[in-house]
Specification:
With 252 residues, this protein is mainly beta. The chain is built from five helices and 18 strands. It has a seven-stranded mixed β-sheet. A five-stranded mixed β-sheet has the order 7-18-17-13-14, with no helix packed on it. Strands 1-2-3 form a three-stranded antiparallel β-sheet, with no helix packed on it. It is globular, with a radius of gyration of 18 Å.
Length: 252
């Protein structure tokens, strides 16, 4: 966002280069203006039609919550209104019980795909990756059985600070800190279902469109967050997503 207007942009030459239109539809769009990073506000890097997510995609994470490892991806949806960008606060309801962070690699779909048949086809549909934090109301998750409320409150899907293409994510490090204390330190090589496999399987039951995202699951080490905390998720080759934790009733 610049001067109150929302734009797509590319990071190049140490500046934010504003481009016309959607970068997924027109990846070669020319830069129309350049700004210093401190002069712009970063929003979530994409505006998906669908936010798909995967539960228990790391064996150690399934184990730490006392769950079995799924034999196929455990897909669920987060509502698009849950999306916020880097630097925006996660706002949690009062008296909600335990609230958890879940740092994750998030894949970005680059072209429409449905009923794919090979991993190569699926890989070609991935434009790139960003960082996400799958905020979870853990007590609600256990109470409800299904995860709509536990995962779907407004602000429960931070993403950013930007999306990166051309990144090899077979083995990249993911670190989550709370108030600068390391809580998660994992690697994507421990995923049960890799990104292309997730796209392949998701395409069997839904059409994925450019800009749609898939939260690919979280490593072990998830834990509680409280009002006043600062949660930061860092993935090598992408950057750091930072979000403070506030109440829904707070105006600041």
């Amino acid at each position: 966002m610049v001067d109150g207007q929302i734009h797509y942009a590319r990071w190049e030459h140490g500046q934010v280069g504003l481009i016309g239109g959607d970068f997924l539809k027109n990846p070669d769009a020319p830069v129309t203006a350049r700004w210093a990073l401190e002069d712009v506000k970063l929003l979530a890097p994409v505006t998906p039609r669908t936010v798909l997510a995967v539960g228990r995609n790391y064996r150690a994470h399934a184990a730490e919550l006392g769950n079995d490892v799924p034999s196929e991806p455990l897909f669920f949806l987060k509502q698009t209104g849950a999306i916020i960008g880097d630097g925006e606060p996660v706002r949690i309801p009062l008296n909600m019980g335990r609230m958890d962070f879940e740092g994750e690699l998030v894949l970005v779909i680059g072209k429409s795909c449905s009923q794919l048949t090979t991993l190569d086809e699926a890989a070609s549909c991935i434009w790139g990756y960003t960082i996400g934090n799958d905020i979870t109301a853990r007590d609600l998750q256990k109470k409800d059985g299904q995860w709509v409320r536990a995962k779907g409150y407004d602000t429960f899907a931070p993403m950013g600070p930007w999306a990166v293409s051309g990144l090899d994510v077979e083995d990249v490090r993911l670190v989550t800190t709370v108030n600068q204390r390391v809580r998660q330190d994992g690697t994507t090589r421990h995923m049960i279902f890799q990104p292309a496999d997730l796209v392949l399987r998701a395409s069997q039951f839904m059409t994925l469109e450019p800009g749609d995202v898939i939260f690919t699951g979280t490593p072990d080490g998830v834990g509680p967050i409280s009002v006043g905390d600062l949660v930061q998720v860092t993935i090598d080759g992408i950057g750091t997503l930072s979000n403070s934790i506030k109440t829904r009733d707070s105006l600041t």
